[in-house]
From TrEMBL:
Pfam families: Sugar_tr (PF00083). It comes from the Eukaryota. The chain crosses the membrane at residues 6-25, 37-56. This is Major facilitator superfamily (MFS) profile domain-containing protein. GO terms for cellular component: membrane. InterPro entries: MFS_sugar_transport-like, MFS_trans_sf. GO terms for molecular function: transmembrane transporter activity. Keywords: Membrane, Transmembrane, Transmembrane helix. It is found in: Membrane.
């Protein structure tokens, strides 16, 4: 859930960036030339790397299912009353989190 939402947002940002880049860099190339267009594009790329390094947490080794469970708990604690279904088997994801992926009580509990 959380990961999928992130991909959707990132896809939209990427497409928006492509449109803005096309509209912005064409006049820059016409007025300053290809060399400065490349330099400005490189600066924008480095700025993107810096923003990513500073603001995106390192999720290496983390289980995204646990992040989904935490997100559902957060939603429930803040008054969200809905149900999210797992597309693979149609079961309610909220119920899977209560019971656990293997049917035991190892999952995070929704309070």
């Amino acid at each position: 859930m959380v990961g999928l939402s992130g991909y959707i947002v990132l896809g939209a940002i990427g497409k928006t960036g492509a449109v803005i880049g096309t509209q912005a860099f064409t006049p820059i190339e016409n007025h300053l030339g290809k060399r400065w267009t490349f330099i400005i594009a490189a600066i924008c790329g480095l700025a993107g790397v810096l923003v990513t390094y500073l603001f995106v947490p390192d999720m290496t080794g983390d289980d995204l299912a646990d992040e989904d469970a935490k997100w559902l708990c957060y939603l429930a604690e803040n008054g969200w009353d809905g149900e999210i279904r797992d597309e693979r088997d149609g079961a309610a994801l909220t119920e899977k989190i209560r019971v656990g992926p293997r049917g035991d009580d190892s999952a995070l509990e929704m309070e």
